[in-house]
Amino acid sequence: MEARKLFASFSLVVVALCTASGTTMKYYIDEEAPLGTFIGNLSLDLKINASEQQNTVFRFMHEEKSSLILMGEGDGCLTVGARMDRESLCHRSPLCLINFDVVVVSKEKFHLIHVEVQVRDTNDHAPRFPRNEIRLDIAEDVAVGTKFPLEAANDLDVGNNYVQEYHLHQNRHFSIETKRGEDGIAYPELVLVKDLDSDVEDTLKMTASDGGSPPKLGSVTVRVNVLDSNDNSPRFELTPPKVELHEDAPVGYLLLKLYASDPDHGANGEVRYGFMDGVADEIKDTFAIDFFTGAVTLKSPVDYETRKSYELSVQAYDLGVNSVPSTSKVTVEVVDVNDNAPEIHIKPMASASEGVAHITEAAAVESFVALISTTDRDSGTNGDMRVSLSGHEHFKLKQAYGDTFMIVTTAPLDREKIPEYNMTVVAEDLGSPPFITSRRYTIRVSDENDNAPLFSKPVYDISFMESKEPGSYIATLVARDLDDGANGQVTYKLIDNDIDGAPLSSYVAVHPISGSLYTVQSLDYEYLKQIEVGIEASDGGSTPRSSTAIVKVKVVDENDNAPFITHPVLINGSADVPLSHNAPAGYVAVTVSAHDLDDGVNGKLSFSLLEDNERTFFINKTTGVIALKHSLSHKQGDSLEIKVMVTDGGRTPFSCTATLRFVVTDEELFDEHLVVSFEMTDVDKSEEQKTNLEASFIIIILLGAGCAFLLVAIIAVAFSSRPGQRETYFRKNNGLESAFVRSPVSANSTDSSDSGSCHESGATVSEQLTSTRDDSSYEEQSQDSDSKLFRPLLKRTNLDSVAMWHDDRQSHHIRIPPIDQTSMKDSGKGDSDIPDSDSNISSDADQRISISGHRRAMNSVYSAPMVGMCQATKEISTTRSSNVASSGYKIAYRSSMCNYHSVNQRVSTWRNYDYIPSALPRAPEQFQDPACHRIGTLYHHNPYSYMGRAPQVTSEVTPSATAF
Fold it and tell me: Molecular function terms in GO for this entry (predicted)?
């Protein structure tokens, strides 16, 4: 624990060099510090509040130093992670540094920190001599003060912990001096301080000590052998203490030539050269000395960047007996030349492959991408460099420290536009000639989830045929996401919704990956004509983005429903229909109504007779009206049976059939009370209530004036033989002149509205009932007016008009005498067997048929019985003839005959009959009754206009039947 505190105290010395381009943090740690020893805290030293910036992360640029030094990712706390032996890390280097780079990631920004941890040496090694014993031969006549170099001790420690001094135990002949070479290393020299005796051997003990506290020691034994005198020893002359050697010098290059002279003759004067004993092997491997000439040559290449100087210990000796060598030291300084090209090292922030850096597209401007270190082993100008970056303006170089640069962004990045950049880093030194090094580098922009999936349009309209089986394919929706990887993987789902209380998922489903839409159940057009399906597309980002689209699935109708008959009401597929025995040709026996749940063409119905053995009937294929081809014969019996088929218009048509049995009755057909049906437009409830009150008030007044009305009726009957006078009298005496203006129908007009009387009267019955126009001159299916007139019905028939008003209804009655089927008179033109109007102007009033205009109830085909309605209070006997060939009208009439539509067969009810002449056979010898096959129009009169009130707006006439 004490040791940990001691080491920690050493490491708190921090130097921060903050520049515009980066930050360098320096820390110190002693070698052999225990594991976990605190080195420094980057967040504290950089004043980064990690608690406030929770997303701050500290990361090593490279992991090679992470085993020696550990760093906290959240706060940048540095601790010792492994044993640190300075000698193994840095050898004899005087400065031992552990350099690494840290990137601080905070709020989409990158901050580069260069960290230098200096491992300080501890005196953990003692000096050691190469050998345990040194032998030295000295002539007995050597002069006092002569110095003899000895081998130096080695120490693995550096600095003050290296060998500092040498000591010699007490000796009367010798002493030790400590010398320092050019490299600062101390070496010993043995100095003769007293004359030697011949044939004497002296043993010395030399000790080396380092500068540690306490110092460590190393010793060696030196044996001195005193020899007989050899008169003279060789002496070096003109030997330079220092020579220069260019690092590019070739092997064999001559550095210098040693020269020593010896005045003796013979063997005692022959001089030889060589290295002193104990010279390091590195020196002997690099240089060579010629044994005879003393030439010093280069044995192997030298490198300035590896070693800048060498110290050579040389000697010269003669060949005489007891020769004493002379020694000298020569320093070789290596001269740098521009022989090295710049080196480029790129360290990306994160990369899975060499030469590739990654950066997120969300990075801010000036964000760090990669670290570029440039080195040149040359020195001086040869080692100075210029570094540049080319490839794209979105990036630039920014100096971090020394020859280290950062690649940073200059603009926002967008991976969807440029996913990858190819950059080139160029380093050029300033030597002559210069060396240039270039390196290509790729920067890949990593994706951020900055794009939502997008559909091609917000709303899709899709048609889908109904009745397809569940699981049928509808369509595929594709949403495209420009992002990459998981950020661009789109999944689909339905947006929750209900359709008539049922979840949308019970109708359709969407495949989550493909976006294909399928049905869950069969879709029925008759139940559901359109489904709006909401689809949501989401990407796979950590914070997903989404978008929606609406698919309007329009269910297309398929002919999957057969028509069914609604009228007449069928029981077990058949119905009984009463038919009068004297029904003429063209008489509408019944109208078949049917319905089909399908739509459009699939629901358009056509009617046909499947079986008609008697060939008595024909059917309108569009309306379903069944009419007689000819009058009935007693041979046909009491009942006629036909089979009707109703077919829809589908491509594969469906049909239904019904059997109709016509029961022939004794009911007379012509003594019937016809009532023309009108329908009024709904008005505001408050106004209608007010109108009803006024109508009630009018009824009370009119009932009180009943006697007056009876008198007027008598007068009208009296003047019936004078048509012009009857009409004038009616209009003058009843104040209804504007309501019953009779206007002749022009031969050039198909509508009584052309007469201009529609704006003056509420209901108008045409005075002129004779027309010479053919069928085509009349307006067909005219229902576009709120006040139109049904033209008179019968051809060349005496009509007596009776006007009556009862309760809240106004009626106009026309009576017609029965047609004498046995009396057929020619008109003179051969086209009719019916007596013309001139011969039948005078008719019995009791033989008249009444046509009434009234206000219908409930807008239904069959109105409720209107008992007592036809009691005339005023009557005008006006007779006009109708000469409209083959013209027809659609009306409803009230009949007292036995009616199968009525619950009570004795009560008069509204009946539906059509008279269509187009199907009538025309035998030249037989007169055909006039038939009605077109819809006419009739001006409708508001009954309240009798009291001088303005007419109310009325709707189109809604024909409920056709009568002859």
Answer: calcium ion binding
